[in-house]
Design a protein that fits this description.
Structural class: alpha/beta
Number of helices: 19
Strand content: 5-15%
CATH superfamily of the largest domain: Periplasmic binding protein-like II
Largest sheet: 5 strands, mixed
Radius of gyration: 23 Å
CATH topology of the largest domain: D-Maltodextrin-Binding Protein, domain 2
Shape: globular
Mean pLDDT: 88
Distance between the termini: 66 Å
CATH architecture of the largest domain: 3-Layer(aba) Sandwich
Length: 439
């Protein structure tokens, strides 16, 4: 057994040294310690299944991390983990995960949940609470860690986090832009139109305004930027802030405006993350609201084509919506100790740095953003850290899917009526927040 453990330790160091440096290798030593001491006999043998949406980062880093765990800790205990990646959109992922959880068939050991689904999975006891007296939560940034809490308990650990950023073409508006608000955007867009003659810009800005969760995110950020609120302390307060809410949504209504210098791209009402990245890369817009993974995608694609767009990022709006995914242990797993070991491995600082440096996912530990190599490779690291630390969660409710759908219906109406809200909107939202649908 001793030889096996030494071999395992050697594999950890060999793999880590091949992939990583500095903080990575030091963390690998910490991981190896239990194996060097003789391992944890409580880890149950067998296969572990992680149910997840697709990996939208660069290079399939989710699977590579699981393979690293399999080659080291998993192999030492006779455990093999795999990711079952679901096809389709985020809505499809939610439906499939919910269906698996409701069936209680025991085919899933770990869920990779969008932060907005945690409350529902916790309220229905589809996942297990984590014991904070034994789970190490030190070092996590507060905002993504708190996203895993519901009803006073911790249910999930952050795998990667997200906060919206404003990408801008430095060849059109210069460098070093400070944090931008909606009220600042028109002037900068005029500068971009003045700077670009051929090919002409299609518009100044593009965001995710198709009828999906991206619209909820973009609308909330626009409302918050105008000092409006939708939900406070678990109550719908949209009528109290009606003027500010309508001011914020009026910005999105400009997606339908015409003219020589349109604010928003004409296809914005049908745009999702990939559409926005493509328009920005092609130079048809000067500004783009998107998630951090777009930064890595833009630079990776540029390296392949040898034509990197001249761009940088800054914070956008008063606050960003907090995004990201967290790992939770399924209530029906028959390998809870093994599942926890894998979750802690995947949410460690080492895994987070791999996901950030190689996959483009925003890291969940502040120490990663302070790493000198990270800052040299990603000059926007400090901007991203500030965005994550100040990001705000969407309304926390076990009925979030219904709430978001109802909210988007009202937002779509407002976008067609210069920001004006439909009648009875507050009552509809309050019912949805409580899991009811008004006729």
């Amino acid at each position: 057994m001793a030889d096996s453990l030494l071999d395992t330790r050697s594999r950890i160091f060999d793999v880590a040294a091949g992939l990583l440096a500095g903080l990575f290798l030091a963390t690998a030593v910490v991981w190896a310690a239990p194996l060097i001491r003789g391992g944890d006999p409580a880890l149950e043998r067998g296969d572990l299944v992680i149910l997840s949406g697709r990996d939208d980062g660069v290079g399939g880093q989710h699977e590579k991390l699981v393979n690293l765990w399999n080659a080291t800790i998993g192999q030492a205990h006779g455990i093999t983990a795999r990711i079952e990646a679901l096809p389709g959109s985020a809505d499809d992922h939610y439906s499939e995960m919910k269906g698996r959880a409701e069936s209680a068939g025991g085919t899933v050991d770990i869920y990779n949940l969008d932060v907005i689904w945690i409350a529902e999975f916790a309220a229905n006891r589809w996942i297990q609470p984590l014991d904070e007296s034994t789970v190490d939560t030190s070092g996590f940034i507060r905002t993504p860690l708190d996203a895993g809490r519901y009803d006073g308990r911790l249910w999930a650990l952050p795998f990667n986090t997200d906060a919206g950023l404003l990408f801008y073409r430095t060849d059109l508006v210069g460098t070093g832009l400070p944090p931008m608000r909606w009220r600042d955007l028109s002037r900068k867009i005029d500068e971009a139109f003045d700077a670009r003659t051929e090919p002409r810009l299609a518009a100044g800005y593009v965001g995710q305004l198709d009828d999906y969760e991206g619209l909820t995110v973009n609308a909330l950020e626009a409302i918050w930027d105008a000092d409006g609120e939708v939900v406070e302390d678990g109550k719908v307060v949209i009528d109290r802030y009606r003027q500010q809410v309508e001011t914020g949504l009026a910005h999105l209504a400009n997606a339908r405006a015409e003219g020589e210098r349109p604010l928003l791209h004409p296809d914005a009402v049908r745009s999702r993350e990939g559409d926005c990245t493509r328009a920005f890369r092609e130079g048809t817009v000067a500004f783009m609201r998107n998630w951090p993974v777009a930064y890595r995608n833009l630079t990776e694609q540029a390296a392949e084509s040898r034509a990197r767009p001249a761009f940088s990022v800054t914070r956008f709006g008063k606050w960003s919506v907090l995004g990201g995914q967290s790992l939770a242990i399924a209530a029906g797993t028959d390998q809870p100790a093994a599942a926890r070991s894998l979750v802690e491995f995947l949410t460690s600082p080492l895994s987070g740095q791999i996901l950030f440096e190689r996959g483009g996912f925003a890291a969940t530990h502040a120490v990663i953003y302070k790493d000198e190599k990270v800052r040299q490779t990603y000059p926007y690291a400090e901007v991203l850290l500030q965005a994550v630390e100040t990001a705000r969660p969407r309304p926390v409710t076990p009925h979030y899917a219904l709430f978001s759908k109802t909210f988007r219906t009202g937002v779509r109406y407002a976008m067609e009526h210069n920001g004006k809200l439909p009648g009875g909107f507050a009552e509809q939202l309050a019912a949805a927040l409580d899991g009811r649908l008004l006729e």
